[in-house]
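Look at a sample.

——
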Amino acid sequence: MSYEYHDILNTFSTPGYDYNYSDNYNDAPKPCGKEGVRHFGSVFLPILYTLVFLSGLVGNSLVIVVLFKYKRLKSMSDVYLLNLAISDLLFVFSLPFWSYYAVDQWIFGGSWCKIISWIYLVGFYSGIFFIMLMSIDRYLAIVHAIFALRARTVTYGILTSAIVWVVAILASIPELIFNDSVNEHNYTTCKPKYLANSVTWKLFSSLEINLLGLLVPLIVMGFCYSMIIGTLQRCRNEKKNKAVKMIFTVMVVFFIFWTPFNIVLLLQSLVDIGVITGCQISTNLDYAMQVTETLSFFHCCVNPVIYFFMGEKFKKYIHLLFKSWSLTGKLCKRCGFHITYHTESSSSFHTQSTGDQDAL
């Protein structure tokens, strides 16, 4: 994650500005004050971070409970959904720290600065990778149904999930190495601390997020869904259409929430290397960074909502779950009435290649 916008809390110069250190102080450039951005962030960010944290925690926890209690991880899609929920939970785990940071300063030390920044980016990369895998899973189930009988197994789902986590962890290593607690002007920040070639590393970080977090998934998902649409046009199947509709919605929502931040991040990298200059432009980008990044946070809350409104089975399982937890359910049990639910067993489903049973 790029936390350059946190640096604006104590930045008084335009990024990329070439100062003329002469003795004529009357001609010296005026500092680019950004106190307004700091005030905006201290009010705006904690409220939204708290909303994202609470809704993301509850929603994704329910997904995990449903998958273990009712679905029992009987398919590759279940494995990917479970890992996506875990990714989102990792994502929201960091938000209480950033919420406090936005109001005050970083008080958690250098080690936690590294860990929390790293956890955020691991959650980001793994989340988009699992959405991409879910699209590939739909592609195999519908376009290559015969091959999918052998490929779409729980074992392969666990194996590919492990690979995704390794790639996400490796891609996030720079955050673990460079991020640190820095004290400047009696104010402690959590930001990247580069020993040399800071501009190069900032540019690399920006390009890495745009490449792995946007461009590559866009290409893969675009290919998968173009092939899926072509296949469905030749062979209509209502259950397949519902499954594809849900996963496609997850993909579209992700890009709606993340694309603005990636664009702003790319523009910020141009400021860092001096291609874009000007105090007003820099200040506007700081505001945009806060707004778009906070908007991107909400994606981890949206996936459970999509499952609920678009997945008939998921709605049924949530209903059963709340009934089993409710006071009414407990009273019914005492009166001799028992609420029953059915877990999904391998014998109660079609073959995995049909692509319909996997949708929640």
In short: Confidence is low (pLDDT under 50) at residues 1-29, 336-360. The two ends are 31 Å apart (CA to CA). Residues 131 and 251 are 7 Å apart (CA to CA).
